[in-house]
Design brief:
Elements lengths: L1 H44 L3 H5 L4 H7 L3 H7 L2 E14 L4 E12 L5 E13 L4 E4 L11
Antiparallel strand pairs: 1-2, 2-3, 3-4
């Protein structure tokens, strides 16, 4: 019986080691994604859109050309909620997508509405950081 237990425990032990090794390789990348997404959602939630711009991938940011007038528009709204309604992450590919519902209150009319937004993220292997590759949310959604 003891010999049988030893024979079964060795493969189980090796599998546990492989599982543990897999967790440690994704751990820092996963942790950085959580922290980056928390910082991004906090910036949007508290109306710091200029700060959020700094979290956008520099290559994407160059092409966005957000004007001071566009940034002023964001001061006309108050964010009442920021809710993750679905996330998909592929750590091997270095990508993540989050679908978000944002509660938006117009400061002038006090009317509230909900806007949907899709965040896309890219892992920068060289810089060991996650970057947002989507623009700032369109809080006016065609308005």
């Amino acid at each position: 019986m003891t010999r049988l237990l030893r024979a079964l425990c060795k493969p189980a032990f090796v599998l546990c080691l492989f599982a543990l090794a897999a967790c440690t390789t994704l751990g820092p990348q996963s942790d950085k994604l959580d922290k980056s997404q928390y910082a991004w959602s906090g910036a949007i939630r508290w109306g710091d859109f200029e700060g959020a711009m700094n979290m956008i991938d520099p290559k994407v940011r160059e092409k966005l050309e957000v004007t001071p007038l566009q940034l002023e528009r964001y001061k006309q709204v108050q964010i009442s909620s920021y809710r993750d309604i679905g996330t998909s992450t592929d750590f091997e590919a270095g990508t993540s997508v989050r679908d978000i519902e944002i509660g938006v209150i117009n400061r002038h009319t006090m009317a509230e509405r909900v806007v949907r937004y899709r965040e896309t993220w890219r892992w920068d292997e060289e810089g060991k950081a996650w970057w947002v590759t989507s623009p700032l949310p369109d809080l006016w959604d065609g308005q």
